[in-house]
């Protein structure tokens, strides 16, 4: 287990997001130990706005110590406006090895559910089985862009091994929870050659699949057939999901006719 070393305070926490599949969101941690090398967009933004000065600072998560107090104050004001609350867009709510972060994430979800607000969570850590005790309206997801652990160690060095992520998700599915998968940012073959269908088959138990291309990466930009490649895989996702009654969402800019 890892210990949180840094604590920060915030004045506000719940906000409306502009992310295409999001409604309201909360980011109760600054930084993320998963150290994704796609690169991590949240890190680039935090650096641009001088919240952190380098990657070493980014990968040492700082927990918002007054998060629950703020949330208790914000819920009554926002309750009628929120359809769903997503954890998280700029950090990871179940950061691998950090119990304290997971506990706070669960507390946030509980408070939302107690006020009739459903939550969705997305992680590259391991979803705790305790989530199955919360509202069955919640939706729990993992990011999965490969099944190759050597690749994972390079691209998401601080995140959970793929098999642990998948097993955590599957356990929640078995307990009757809604589950989803985010296959994003998916790499082009000049980054890694892999069987896309293997990934889809591995997660065919989920209720929803989100698929998206890699952005902000010069190696992908150099790949000449990127547009056709992402079009082909997007169609594969649509066909796969349609034939199995799985909901899907293709991220903006991924399928371009
Ligand atoms: S899990 Fe998300 S927030 Fe954390 S480093 Fe990876 S991309 Fe960034």
The structural class is alpha/beta
Rg on CA atoms, Å: 18 Å
CATH superfamily: Aldolase class I
Poorly predicted runs: none
Which outline best applies? Answer: globular
**What's the arrangement of strands in the largest beta sheet?**
2-3-6-7-8-9-10-11
Number of helices: 9
Write out the distinct hetero groups bound to the structure.
iron/sulfur cluster
Approximate helicity band = 25-40%
**What is the tally of beta strands?**
11
- The string of secondary-structure elements, in order, is EEEEHHEHEHEEHHEHEHHE
| Strand-residue proportion | 15-25%
CATH-level-2 architecture: Alpha-Beta Barrel
Work out the count of structural domains. 1
Mean pLDDT: 96
CATH-defined topology? TIM Barrel
Largest β sheet strand count, sense and barrel closure: 8 strands, mixed
At the first level of CATH, what is the class?
A: Alpha Beta
The end-to-end distance, rounded to whole angstroms, is 47 Å
Q: What keyword list fits this structure?
A:
9 helices; TIM Barrel; alpha/beta; 8-stranded mixed β-sheet; binds iron/sulfur cluster; 3-stranded mixed β-sheet; 257 residues; 11 strands
